[in-house]
């Protein structure tokens, strides 16, 4: 499902980002006839007192409601600086619970009667409220919060004593000494009580159908947690916890079956690491395990990249009845909705091979979702009909990519080229090879403002899914285990050569390579092994695999999963050094822009610092742009003014060297 492509119109600048409105968190009403969702826009932090010399654009979010009869209306109108998020329907459809955030104070749980009246505040904690869920009988609301605990050690200049293997995390910075507790609010009495204080931070949780408790995902100890080994537990209303599984491997979420006896999980089996696609499993009362959809060689969940996702994008599988589970899956460059039955079959429920469903909630009564494509901005839909018209409000012309394929010993790979719309006025345009992160993510039919901007400013954007990307079968993912920088580089360069051969508008004499995260690693690796590109942009990159192991929030396990190597073992460290771009940095001659965020704990900023220092010592033209207060998600959901600066730096560097 795509919209017509606009070929004419204004060329976007980086500030076109500020005109966009971002939908998120579509929540289907219990009767399936309405959808509540979040709409975020950018405005001045203090619109009544703007500073002409110091613009402060910030995200501001509100709740919206749309019905089957059409028409959408704004539900909340918080004051400047406030953000409303996480709408959650009461089982009777009469009340919305949501979270309201003001300034530096943590988000508060609010209750909004939909028949009319003001929202009522439930919590007054200093810490925020997360993962709000109603019990199926409507008696309780559960949520996680740190309560009134505050960590002011940095503010006071106190020493921080670290005794746990996991102590920082991207997007959160320092982890609290004690995990957030699970709280329970009883609506009839107004009683708010602490329900469960875990020793190890839980992941996903879900109410049991009879409302007698919840199932949650967690780890048995800290070592299991950093090795991504989880179990499913039951917590009853009296606070008793029972371990239900002996899974000992990664689990993402748990979905109780309507019978209350069984439950489904999304995860990987024991002995399988990060390169294994996530799949659906049904676990019975006797702990018997059945894989659902064993013939579906694609992962559960959406992994197609895009940079217009601000806010929550739910995609938890849903039981439509006792036999059928609805879930998202990444298939090549698309994400669709599929059903898996207890009997084992998988069928497409809503799958456009040239589209992406980036979020959904559902029941037997209907489906609410967010759909996008390479030429269609994300829109909220209710039971197949759009309830937003954000694509029509885009302040720039949208260009459609053309598909380009390449082959290797596993079969056909694919990618795309996005070209400027005014090619008649140009002879040829510079060609950019853009590499996605992960590595187990995907490029495809997601809407990407950055690509549209680069094309509109006169560049041909080439992007693909080399081996290691997901959506092309398990063998395609496994192909780079233990050998980053080998067959993945072969695919990237083969695809780029194919683009240059088949798209006459691309100028082979003016080329750049660029990417973020794993894409930044590959940018560093490629420029250290070939001088064919005239410019490079490496964003939130990796250059030293050994130091990454000890500084990244996932470093304790990541190389074991990806490469079969442990940075803390001498023999493995030698191999990790062989796989590090820094070892080959003296070969780099490509002018390089380095972009990194100070609070990036996924690919720590020390990686950029090492790469910058080495390039500088070797006399390579280099520019290093550091962003304060941002983490690994700067390009996708960072503060608007900082996202703007990043795009300006990209364009400035490309203009200078191409």
UniProtKB/TrEMBL annotation:
Task: Please report the organism this UniProt entry assigns to the protein.
Answer: Deinococcus petrolearius
Give the record's keywords alphabetically.
Answer: Hydrolase, Protease, Serine protease
Q: Does the keyword DNA repair apply?
A: no
Q: Name one Pfam family in it.
A: PD40
Provide the protein name. Answer: S9 family peptidase
Peptidase S9 prolyl oligopeptidase catalytic domain span: 447-658
Q: Where is this region: Disordered?
A: 1-26
Instruction: Reply yes or no: does the keyword Cytoplasm apply.
Output: no
